[in-house]
Design a protein that fits this description.
single chain, alpha+beta, Glucose Permease (Domain IIA), Lysozyme, eight-stranded antiparallel sheet, elongated
Length: 384
């Protein structure tokens, strides 16, 4: 585990804060008639959403031969399987498996490293580079992947609120590394590994015996949640609206909007304008003739993914530079800007590109992350 300013075997990478580009002038106008069910009908049956969010009762056997992922070979994949198997035995939810594997990717590239002599970082050993001198155990214990995994989980589970934290923050609470931002870059690969080895469990919520895609108010193992409980309305770049770079989620004015994943707020802005480019307040309802996204928020997540939340009823409840957790309230839905009725316009952008060029269809992306848009909560549950 890194504790000083030297990092001979690791490369530090910080969270890149992307500059937002100009929004498209047209967003969600066209009247409330534009709301239509876009493939998802609000069913609570996870099979409706393609499911694949973990197989109930699946127990990982690290002795199997696993398919390689990229440059990770059989030994590394078996180490990953051991980390998952230990998490299962300890009843750690799948989010913990993702955090643990991302940590091991950073610390050892999932290799059970022994003492590397002059290249060794103090007395760090094993998958998680745990140090005997810091109370993690004897060298022989730490070199046992099952033991080192259990020690990692013991500390992780003792961290209050770790499930909603940014992965890199949760890992840092355990590791106390000199490079606390380094874990974030491994989140996507860690989720992919969990999905491959545990049949889609990185898209799951719930316990080992009840893995399923998340309902509103829950966070998937990949660290994502549904921003509002709503049906999907107008879709992404449809034939009649080719410049619609997100989806509309039909909610009443004043509905609490939640961060879809942990990250850093990079934009809080009102960009409404009149049809001739003149000023227009975001504190009043817009219309199809008004331009812009109204009050909106951009959040930068791990992997340089950006989410956007448009048409809020008033100035959002967050500020630029603020770190938010998955599911944290960030504002309230409304109809500001280019909008003909209350709703949340939601976008996903890749590669840190906040322009229209970086926008992708949020529906398949959110389903892949285990938080299908359009899902409504079952009876007895609440919104995030």
């Amino acid at each position: 585990m890194t504790t000083d300013a030297q990092e001979p075997r690791r490369v530090r990478i910080g969270l890149v804060v992307a500059l937002t580009a100009a929004l498209a002038l047209l967003c969600c106008g066209g009247g409330t008639a534009a709301f239509f069910l876009d493939g998802l009908n609000g069913s609570t049956n996870s099979q409706t959403f393609g499911a694949d969010c973990g197989k109930q009762g699946l127990i990982i056997d690290p002795n199997h031969t696993f398919e390689r992922i990229g440059s990770l070979g059989d030994v590394q994949m078996r180490n990953a399987a051991t980390i998952i198997a230990v998490g299962q035995k300890l009843n750690v939810p799948p989010r913990g498996w993702v955090v643990a594997i991302a940590t091991a990717l950073q610390e050892s590239v999932l290799t059970n490293l022994g003492n590397l002599g002059a290249q060794n970082d103090h007395d760090s050993l094993g998958l998680f580079q745990q140090r005997p001198s810091q109370g993690w155990g004897t060298p022989e214990e730490i070199m046992n992947p099952e033991y080192s995994s259990r020690k990692f989980y013991d500390k992780l589970m003792a961290v209050a609120g770790w499930e909603k934290m940014q992965l890199t923050d949760a890992a840092q609470k355990v590791q106390i590394s000199a490079y606390p931002d380094a874990y974030a870059k491994h989140e996507a690969l860690a989720a992919l590994i969990v999905n491959k080895l545990a049949d889609g469990a990185a898209r799951a919520a719930g316990s080992l015996v009840n893995l399923r895609c998340v309902f509103p108010g829950e966070i998937s193992a990949s660290g994502w949640t549904i921003p509002v409980r709503a049906l999907v309305g107008s879709g992404f770049r449809t034939a009649d609206r080719p410049n619609h770079f997100g989806v509309d989620l039909a909610v009443d004015k004043g509905t609490e909007v939640h961060a879809a994943s942990a990250g850093v707020v990079i934009t809080v802005q009102c960009n409404a304008s009149s049809s001739n480019g003149g000023p227009w307040s975001c504190d009043i309802d817009g219309s199809a003739a008004v331009r812009g996204c109204g009050w909106y928020v951009d959040i930068l997540h791990a992997g340089n993914v950006i989410t956007r939340y448009c048409h809020m009823v008033r100035r959002p409840e967050v500020t630029v530079g603020q770190t938010v957790t998955a599911g944290q309230p960030i504002g309230y839905s409304g109809s500001s800007g280019n909008s003909s009725g209350p709703h949340l316009h939601f976008e996903v952008h890749l590669n840190g590109d906040s322009s229209n060029n970086g926008a992708i269809n949020p529906v398949p992306y959110m389903q892949q992350m285990g938080a299908p848009l359009g899902m409504t909560a079952p009876v007895g549950t609440t919104s995030p």
